[in-house]
């Protein structure tokens, strides 16, 4: 524990906790300090000027990161017949109908993303209390309830990231790995910020993107000047 504390302390050296850094500089600092024995995830967090308790201030969407996420995503598809075969051919890890619903009801949730064909939602709807709190419930707004199961599976495997604002008005996501090149991380963060900007709800008042920070799994958070993330912000 002391060793971990010492390492985190060293990672924070040279970082001004109050300064708003240029995004490029922040990524360089993060990469230099990502010294864990595993490939750390790089995360971005954005504080938004919304109150998600109001329906017209909910922020939700999906973004296809141009350079992927660097993590292996296990995908489950609720489908029958030809659509089930399409899902398997596209690389889905788990495919099923009533049998898959039963597995999930029994607590067997061995996947990171769930996709369903529209005709399956009568069945899948029963899993709301199980999948909803985990952020796994298929939803047409983010492309996970669709007849194009092959396209949805490929997008999920290729770097599609769902986002949803939390109660405190924060939206965050893993946008790559410390092993990624700086340019790849820059492109991914800007794609994510662009998607959040486009998802701005009608009820948002005042400054929409208020604060931005990036961090690595074991490293400190670094505050970013929002103007350097997306010039239009």
How does this model look, in words?
The protein has 233 residues and is α/β, with parallel strands linked by helices. It folds into 2 domains: 6-69 and 159-224, Ribulose 1,5 Bisphosphate Carboxylase/Oxygenase; 75-158, 3-Layer(aba) Sandwich (Rossmann fold), CATH 3.40.50. 34% of the residues lie in helices and 21% in strands. A 4-stranded antiparallel β-sheet has the order 7-1-8-9. Strands 4-3-5 form a 3-stranded parallel β-sheet, sandwiched between helices. Helix 3 (81-90) links the parallel strand 3 (75-78) and strand 4. Helix 3 runs parallel beside helix 7 (149-158). The protein is globular, with a radius of gyration of 19 Å. The chain starts with a helix and ends with a helix. The mean pLDDT is 89. InterPro entries: Ribosom_uL1_bac-type (IPR005878), Ribosomal_uL1 (IPR002143), Ribosomal_uL1-like (IPR023674), Ribosomal_uL1/biogenesis (IPR028364), Ribosomal_uL1_3-a/b-sand (IPR016095), Ribosomal_uL1_CS (IPR023673). Belongs to the universal ribosomal protein uL1 family. This is Large ribosomal subunit protein uL1. It comes from Aureimonas pseudogalii.
Main attributes?
globular; 2 domains; alpha/beta; Rossmann fold; four-stranded antiparallel sheet; three-stranded parallel sheet; ribonucleoprotein; 34% helix; 233 residues; Ribulose 1,5 Bisphosphate Carboxylase/Oxygenase; Large ribosomal subunit protein uL1; repressor; translation regulation; Ribosomal_uL1_3-a/b-sand
């Amino acid at each position: 524990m002391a060793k971990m504390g010492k390492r985190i302390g060293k990672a924070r050296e040279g970082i001004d906790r109050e300064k708003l850094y240029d995004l490029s500089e922040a990524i360089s600092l993060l990469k230099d300090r990502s010294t864990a024995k595993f490939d750390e995830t790089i995360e971005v967090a954005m504080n938004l000027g919304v109150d998600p308790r109001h329906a017209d201030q909910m922020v939700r969407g999906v973004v296809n990161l141009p350079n992927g996420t660097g993590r292996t995503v296990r995908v489950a598809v609720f489908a029958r017949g030809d659509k089930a075969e399409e899902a398997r051919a596209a690389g889905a890890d788990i495919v099923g109908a009533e049998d898959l619903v039963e597995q999930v009801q029994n607590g067997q949730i061995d996947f990171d993303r769930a996709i369903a064909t529209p005709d399956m939602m009568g069945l899948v709807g029963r899993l709301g209390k199980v999948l909803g709190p985990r952020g796994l419930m298929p939803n047409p707004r983010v492309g996970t309830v669709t007849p194009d199961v092959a396209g949805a599976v490929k997008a999920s495997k290729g770097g599609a990231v769902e986002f949803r604002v939390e109660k405190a008005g924060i939206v965050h996501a893993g946008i790559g790995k410390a092993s990624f090149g700086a340019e790849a991380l820059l492109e991914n963060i800007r794609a994510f910020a662009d998607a959040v900007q486009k998802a701005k709800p009608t009820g948002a008042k005042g400054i929409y993107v208020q604060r931005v920070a990036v961090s690595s799994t074991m490293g400190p958070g670094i505050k970013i000047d929002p103007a350097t993330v997306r010039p239009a912000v």
